[in-house]
């Protein structure tokens, strides 16, 4: 279950940026350009949080606020006001708005506002299902494998030491972000912000002003002073994702915050002190980055104080089915499908696959299969082709068994491939009752090419 957010504003640009920004955080967002369409939707489906503009083409946001409050007293409504319009803000609060958001707003502030709402105890007790949503969204790490049990212990140690810098390593899709969130929400900082930044997604100088903020006039576009994410994350956790891609100049600045817990805004002259726990994550080979001069060794040691390695899914195969079942459970509810489980042959295929994209890949595969499946068990036909091919290869005693043929002393590649060819041709002939044209078709060969195969392998050809 996800948090449902509605945006009501007649300006398309505002709707679009807000929607994009909030959707990136995993919320379910819908937008409306006038009061009528919003109310229609709200009456039928409700919402958890509403961002409501005051001046709408067909109504006034402050009146809509009253109406919406009557319909669903538990909904959290935030009024978007013009910058400096104190009067509207006061009226909104009196009429039961949860908060107000002055325009122009900063997306980070909006996200922070939403995070805080979700975390706030008052919300948890008002909407007890929020707690449940929160947990499904952020906290469920599935896995009973011994390696996952050790991982849980490491998470709980990291959560207790809430000033210690943590580095999470693991292949793509192994759950690094999930682990980072878990550490935060188990720690004493749980009711403070958890802010995540992707170092690979933003360029160097932009990232610097995102992280550390800037003073008015620090550069051409800096018309106002802006707080950086380190300030916004104060008392909470800052999650630096894809740390392997950090610019050299930023590395120096980051090192200083980690060592001295203070920094300066871009263009600033005074030190700002913060209490932020940094968790970073990467799937890059950081030791290699150091060797190649792309990562400062001193920064690496600072980041790597408590290191957590998440094993790839193929190294904890016993969890594959457990994860698959959990994801099926999640998606069958989401898509309202009557599917009770997996067919035996489907399980075999899934368990045989190596999942280069790890848990994320498994999750996507199950989501797709749940959508596609029309019977009440997931069948192999609903799985992507590559899983079936890879499973066939593994199952086939012709090509792979535990005692791989190329390790034997007098192994010859050519002879081996010849024997595989011969075996396949024989099997297909058997299957087609020796009908050459059918066999050629199954093999994707011309009749002439098939005859060549028969001759080459000394297989009897009754037609000749
Ligand atoms: N042990 C787990 N139990 C349940 N869900 C998991 C688990 N591990 C990962 N997931 C899910 O798999 C998806 C990928 O996880 P996440 O984004 O944390 O991976 P990541 O390591 O940060 O990936 P990337 O390197 O691509 O950024 C998410 O939907 C996450 O909820
Ligand atoms: Mg990630």
What can you see in these coordinates?
- The chain is of the alpha/beta class.
- The protein starts with a strand and ends in an 8-residue tail after the last helix.
- The protein is built from 21 helices and 16 strands.
- The protein has 4 domains: 4-135, Response regulator (Rossmann fold, 3-Layer(aba) Sandwich); 158-310, 3-Layer(aba) Sandwich (Rossmann fold); 314-395, Orthogonal Bundle (Helicase, Ruva Protein, domain 3); 407-456, Orthogonal Bundle (Arc Repressor Mutant, subunit A), CATH 1.10.10.
- Strands 2-1-3-4-5 form a 5-stranded parallel sheet, with helices on both faces. Strands 7-10-13-6-14 form a 5-stranded parallel sheet. Strands 8-9 form a two-stranded antiparallel sheet.
- The structure holds adenosine-5'-triphosphate (ATP) and magnesium ion (MG).
Summarize the structure.
By secondary structure, the chain is an alpha/beta fold. It has 21 helices and 16 strands.
Looking at the structure, what is the overall shape? globular
Structural class: alpha/beta
CATH architecture of the largest domain: 3-Layer(aba) Sandwich
Query: How would you write the strand order of the largest sheet?
Result: 2-1-3-4-5
Task: Give the amount of beta strand, in percent.
Answer: 5-15%
Number of strands: 16
Q: Helical proportion?
A: 40-55%
- The average pLDDT score comes to 87
CATH class group of the largest domain: Alpha Beta
N→C terminal distance: 67 Å
Quick one: CATH superfamily of the largest domain?
P-loop containing nucleotide triphosphate hydrolases
Which blocks of ≥5 consecutive residues have pLDDT under 50? Answer: 121-133
Number of helical elements: 21
Computed over alpha carbons, the radius of gyration is 29 Å
Largest sheet: 5 strands, parallel
CATH topology of the largest domain: Rossmann fold
Instruction: Tally the structural domains.
Output: 4
Bound molecules: adenosine-5'-triphosphate, magnesium ion
